[in-house]
Design brief:
By secondary structure, the chain is mainly α. The chain is built from ten helices and no strands. The protein has two domains: 64 residues, Homeodomain-like (Arc Repressor Mutant, subunit A); 137 residues, Tetracycline Repressor, domain 2.
């Protein structure tokens, strides 16, 4: 065993944020049961027992990763929705929030891969993601839609339809391999992060926008 593996986990040699990012990538790319604490510890140069001492169990590490790296993104999205108390701007704020969600999916695909990977499981972790992040966001999303419907900005739509469009679009953005050859976003020359986000929002709302005079 190398000396590095037995050294204390101190802030001068191991950056906690870097370690959490590494764990984040592992949890987004692999099922929870296939993530190895021993491998993570080796990658940062400490013993697995020391790693456990500082971060607890793998389950506790997962929660810390989620609450450190995902919470800050969802706080921003939810804060935007809370501005919808200004009804005259509700439609534009709703569009911008959805566009920002799509841009985030392009910029931080690992975050959403972790989401979808866990949500497909029947686990306590899936319940946690739904309870703390997904359901609060969708409740605000539905409230914003209802407000826009009442104002006549969009016609009444089944929430299930909108949730399918929203989550289905994100799934494609983070898994471009589902697209046919030649449509992979990475193959394009221009920066599509904003373009794709705006076009997806336009596609969703052009079918829902009421005729305005």
């Amino acid at each position: 065993m190398s000396k590095a593996r037995g050294r204390p986990l101190d802030k001068d040699r191991i950056k906690r944020d870097k370690l959490l990012e590494l764990a984040f990538q592992e949890f987004s790319e692999h099922d929870f049961k296939n993530v190895s604490i021993r491998k993570l510890a080796a990658d940062v140069g400490v013993s697995d027992s020391l790693f456990i001492h500082h971060f607890g169990s793998k389950q506790k590490l997962w929660y810390e990763v989620v609450d450190t790296l995902i919470e800050r993104e969802f706080k921003s999205l939810i804060a935007q929705f809370k501005q919808l108390s200004m009804p005259t701007e509700s439609f534009d704020l709703l569009r911008e929030n959805i566009a920002e969600l799509f841009r985030l999916a392009k910029l931080r695909p690992a975050m959403f891969r972790l989401f979808f990977r866990e949500l497909n499981s029947d686990s306590e972790r899936a319940d946690y993601l739904k309870r703390k992040y997904l359901h609060p966001y969708l409740l605000l999303f539905d409230a914003a839609i209802d407000l826009c419907i009442k104002r006549g900005d969009i016609k009444p739509l089944n929430p299930l339809t909108l949730h399918t469009l929203l989550l289905g679009s994100i799934n494609i953005l983070i898994n471009p391999g589902l697209l046919k050859p030649g449509l992979n976003f990475a193959d394009e020359q221009q920066d599509l992060d904003s373009v794709v986000a705006e076009e997806l929002v336009d596609t969703i709302f052009n079918g829902a926008t009421s005729a305005r005079t």
